[in-house]
Write a structure and sequence with these properties.
Strand content: 5-15%
Oligomer: single chain
Number of strands: 9
CATH superfamily of the largest domain: Histidine kinase-like ATPase, C-terminal domain
Structural class: alpha+beta
Helix content: 55-70%
Order of helices and strands: HHHHHHHHEHEEHEEHEEEE
Number of helices: 11
Largest sheet: 6 strands, mixed
Number of domains: 3
Radius of gyration: 33 Å
CATH architecture of the largest domain: 2-Layer Sandwich
Length: 364
């Protein structure tokens, strides 16, 4: 435990400390000043001495021994001045570091203010902004390609499906329809992924997370019930206001519910719940997530069943949407089945709750 507490203090970050680099310089300056004072001493007894006599090691040692308190005080004052100067001079760099740490793929258009940097560091800030320009160009090109490709594939896929199904025998249409459904789902997921990764913040609004979750559960209830599963909803509050894009959050909820349906056997129960702290959970009593893929379940194209109908993009889209809202998507331990959480608490300062008695668990 002690080691874990001391680790942040002992862990090296970056190169050598500026204070450590400047200490020899301060010590040299103090030593030089003292030697100069000894040579140019105003003591009448020293005026008769030659320079060589004044610089004798024994005499210098005696002078230093007699002046130890003054020397210590001088060193402390000089190092204190250096420390204060460095802290004041590096304060703009710390602010720039905080700004740089807040830049994410969703805010890739943000830039560091060159005017806020010291003149000596301005070229580094300009080079950093130029690197962000190049990254933004490449990232937007990739997003535009995914979105355009998905849009362009929709129409020919629908036309091809109609033509193929018209040529097949009735007993062969089911297999073809399943493949077309899989392709259509993949295209829809690519569009959702491009939208989730988009840097634009248009469409951001204040919405009721509780009402949105309840509406999604109601809209998907017929689909879930027809698949042989059941769904329940449990809310700890009546209203939970958050800032964001309700369309993207709805996509995340639908992806999690569809994921639960695909990976649970008929007869399973799916429960959606929302806590008063802004944590939304979707829990099922199915077989759960295999241990070998739990660490990469939110990675793209990660699938528990390689032969399944999914493309391995649904949970990746959920993670991207939560990152864009300043939240976290995670898989948490459960006694049975799988439990996914959408945690909006990192942006808890923007949460506005009305803790009124909410309805108990309702089966749909």
């Amino acid at each position: 435990m002690i080691r874990s507490l001391l680790e942040p203090l002992t862990r090296r970050r970056g190169g050598p400390s500026l204070m450590r680099m400047l200490f020899p310089l301060v010590l040299f300056a103090v030593t030089t000043t003292l030697l100069f004072a000894m040579v140019q001493g105003d003591d009448p007894e020293d005026r008769a001495l030659t320079v060589q006599e004044r610089l004798r090691p024994a005499r210098i040692a005696g002078e230093l021994r007699d002046s130890t308190p003054e020397i210590t005080l001088l060193l402390v004052l000089m190092m204190g001045g250096v420390y204060v100067t460095l802290n004041l001079g590096l304060r703009p760099l710390r602010r720039l570091s905080d700004l740089a740490g807040d830049i994410t793929p969703a805010t890739i258009e943000a830039r560091l203010p060159v005017g806020a940097a010291p003149r000596e560091v301005a070229p580094l800030v300009e080079a950093f902004n130029a690197a962000l320009d190049r990254l933004e160009t490449g990232l937007r090109a990739q997003r535009d390609f995914s979105a355009n490709a998905a849009h362009e594939l929709r129409t020919p896929l629908a036309t091809l499906r109609a033509q193929v199904e018209s040529l097949l025998e009735p007993n062969e249409r089911r297999a073809a329809s399943e493949e077309f459904e899989r392709l259509g789902r993949l295209i829809a997921q690519l569009l959702a992924l491009a939208e989730a990764e988009g840097g634009a913040t248009s469409g951001s609004a204040r919405f009721d997370l509780m009402a949105l979750a309840r509406d999604v559960a109601s809209d998907m209830a017929s689909f879930i019930l027809s698949s042989g599963r059941t769904i329940g909803f449990d809310g700890a509050v009546e209203t939970l206001m958050v800032d964001g894009q309700p369309g993207l959050v709805e996509t995340a909820l639908r992806n999690l519910l569809e994921n639960a349906v695909r990976h649970t056997p008929p007869g399973s129960e799916i429960l959606m719940s929302v806590t008063g702290a802004g944590v939304l959970r979707i829990h099922d009593d199915g077989p759960g997530v295999p241990a070998e893929i739990r660490g990469r379940v939110f990675e793209r194209f990660s699938r528990g069943d390689p032969r399944g109908a999914g493309a391995g993009l649904g949970l990746s889209i959920v993670r991207q949407i939560m990152e864009r809202h300043g939240g976290v998507a995670r898989l948490v331990a459960a006694d049975r089945g799988a439990c996914f959480e959408l945690d909006f608490q990192p942006r808890g300062a923007r949460l506005d709750q009305s803790v009124a008695p909410a309805g108990s668990l309702t089966a749909m």
